């Protein structure tokens, strides 16, 4: 039997995760506005120039995950989730980790330890997405 007989169609009906990276003003926020019926979660409040639907800017990691849970679990007609921007999400993760660990800064955990803790937070976000 040929190994080619084990080939299967790869396409599955799963959501795509796309990261857009670029400098200020290149259109990172504008690009997903043309996606099918988007809703923005905006840890960075920088959408005044766009006519899009956006949730209130989350002030904490808990507010961010509550918004993700609502988009994931509530009935709605949105087809695209946009999180704008991920560097602001990282800041909320660092703040949550510092608060939980009673530290003043991420560096207070020691070399690489804060980053290891952040992976679990990022994984929870990816699980929602």
What does this structure look like?
The protein has 129 residues and is mostly helical. 34% of the residues lie in helices and 8% in strands. It has helices at residues 61-73, 86-100, 113-128; strands spanning 38-41, 53-54, 80-83. A three-stranded parallel sheet has the order 2-1-3, covered by helices on one side. Helix 2 (86-100) crosses helix 3 (113-128). The longest helix has 16 residues, at 113-128. The model has no long low-confidence stretch (mean pLDDT 92).
Order of helices and strands: EEHEHH
Shape: globular
The number of E-state strands comes to: 3
Give me the number of helical elements.
Answer: 3
Strand order of the largest sheet: 2-1-3
Instruction: Give the biggest sheet.
Output: 3 strands, parallel
Assembly context of the chains = single chain
Strand content: 5-15%
End-to-end C-alpha gap: 40 Å
Q: What is shown here, in short?
A:
With 129 residues, the protein is mainly α. The chain has helices spanning 61-73, 86-100, 113-128, and strands at 38-41, 53-54, 80-83.
